[in-house]
Write a structure and sequence with these properties.
α4 packs across α8 (about 235-270) and α10 runs antiparallel to α11 (about 350-355). The strands form 3 sheets. A 4-stranded mixed β-sheet has the order 1-4-5-8. A 4-stranded antiparallel β-sheet has the order 2-3-7-6, with helices on one face. The protein has helices spanning about 10-25, 30-35, 45-50, 70-80, 85-100, 100-105, 110-120, 235-270, 280-310, 315-340, 350-355, 370-380; strands spanning about 125-130, 145-150, 150-160, 170-175, 185-190, 195-200, 210-220, 225, 270, 275. It is of the alpha+beta class and about 375 residues long. Bound molecules: flavin-adenine dinucleotide.
Length: about 375
């Protein structure tokens, strides 16, 4: 057996084997149905929870596994095995972007109310930042929370929110000063209830995921649901982005590796002009290039991950990993589709879905252009 690639150890590779096996047995067989139905059942969260997979990095006192970000990183890579970007995205949004702010910034009481049932798969979370008028420019959000006796009243609209229809609670960015912006945004945990309405959106890919516009109309949110410090929400957004982007990079690395293996297997079998595709030099060279892409993306991502778990603040490396992997994954899936010829364009082949699903990467979690802007600043340009 080849030794694990740092920062992973034998223990992580064991986890990889069991997580990958679970996903292939319990989730992957349903991927096609869930994609067709544009929905995966809440039961998938419960199944994940029963395996401890909604709380790998959380302390045991909250029902987690007492692991760390490296254990979670294994899961991020293995999620590609579901074969449905939408299912991976819905589960991933709960694990990687909705519950972490509660763990990091929540009060003990908030952790008991949201994190504990979240880890058990009983309450599903969403993160609501993006609005119709504010995506990349997160400081421009206009959803506002007015102070009232005992809490706040929230009005406004969020859009493109993953788990936006099913979520029991939405970790929501709101304006808590008249000016808003960097020093006037806070986070409220908003329970689904009176005044909260969702409408599902149709998408190019990620069909099984539930993406929605959520409107808040005079929603009362109690005082106790303020997450973190008042008017300090921008810090929370920035803290969350680092793991979200790393998780996306890891997800792309897992998806690319799997796609390469499947495409190489196809190329070894499919015969044209009397020999397998892989024996035609153009295809062989293409596969060699794609293997190099997988390897370089993996190295960049693992380096950022190693720095992140070591407690550095690797803004530059995480940003580079997100930028490099998302576009590369989209291009690699397109190349894999091409190698499949007409079959690649057919619904029944995995690669048709993988190519559509990969298109989101350069947009979500901060677009390629925004990654370049961040790099411009970190490189003092
Ligand atoms: C399927 C899906 C799921 C999502 N899930 C969530 C979620 O769970 N929670 C959440 O809060 N959000 C979510 N999002 C929103 C996502 O994060 C935003 O779509 C993304 O940040 C881009 O914002 P925007 O769509 O408003 O594009 P805009 O900000 O309007 O940008 C439009 C284009 O202009 C470019 N651009 C913008 N500003 C600049 C600039 N200064 N210089 C150069 N180019 C620029 C952008 O890169 C982009 O290409 C999701 C989106 C999708 C599609």
């Amino acid at each position: 057996m080849t030794p694990p690639d740092p920062p992973f150890t034998e223990e992580h590779e064991e986890l990889r084997g069991s997580v990958g096996g679970f996903i292939e047995r319990e989730l992957a067989p349903h991927a096609e149905t869930w994609e067709r139905e544009h929905w995966f059942p809440d039961e998938a969260f419960a199944k994940m929870a029963a395996q401890g997979l909604l709380g790998l990095k959380y302390p045991e006192q909250y029902g987690g596994q007492g692991g760390d970000y490296l254990h979670e990183a294994v899961l991020c890579e293995e999620m590609a095995r579901v074969g449905s970007g939408g299912t991976a995205a819905g589960l991933g949004a709960h694990i990687n972007i909705a519950t972490p702010p509660i763990w990091k910034f929540g009060t003990e009481e908030q952790k008991q109310r949201y994190l504990v049932p979240g880890i058990r798969g009983e309450r599903i979370g969403a993160l609501g930042i993006t609005e119709p008028g504010a995506g990349s420019d997160v400081a421009a959000i206009t959803t506002r929370a007015e102070r009232v006796d005992g809490g706040w009243v929230v009005n406004g609209e969020k859009t493109y929110i993953t788990n936006g229809v099913r979520a029991h609670f939405i970790v929501t960015a709101v304006k808590t000063t008249k000016e808003g912006g960097h020093h006037g945004i806070s986070f409220l945990i908003v329970d689904r209830g009176e005044g909260v309405t969702s409408s599902a959106l149709q998408k190019l890919g990620w069909h099984a995921s539930d993406t929605a516009t959520i409107s808040f109309q005079d929603v009362f949110v109690p005082e106790d649901n303020l997450l973190g410090e008042l008017n300090d929400g921008f810090k929370l957004i920035m803290a969350n982005f680092q793991w979200e982007r790393l998780a996306m990079a890891l997800g792309a690395v897992g998806a690319m590796k799997l796609a390469w293996e499947r495409t190489a297997a196809f190329a070894r079998e499919r015969v044209t002009f009397g020999k397998p595709l892989s024996e035609h030099q153009a295809i062989r060279h293409k596969l060699a290039d794609l293997a190099t892409t997988v390897y370089t993306c993996r190295c960049v991502t693992y380096d950022a991950l190693r720095r992140f778990v070591a407690g550095e603040e690797p803004l530059k490396e995480v940003t580079m990993a997100k930028l490099a992997t998302q576009r590369a994954s989209f291009e690699l899936m397109d190349a894999c589709l091409q190698i499949h010829g007409g079959a690649g364009y057919m619904r029944e082949y995995w690669v048709e879905r993988a190519a559509r699903d990969a298109r989101l990467g350069p947009i979500g979690g901060g677009s390629d252009e925004i990654m370049r802007e961040i790099l411009g600043r970190t490189l003092a340009l």
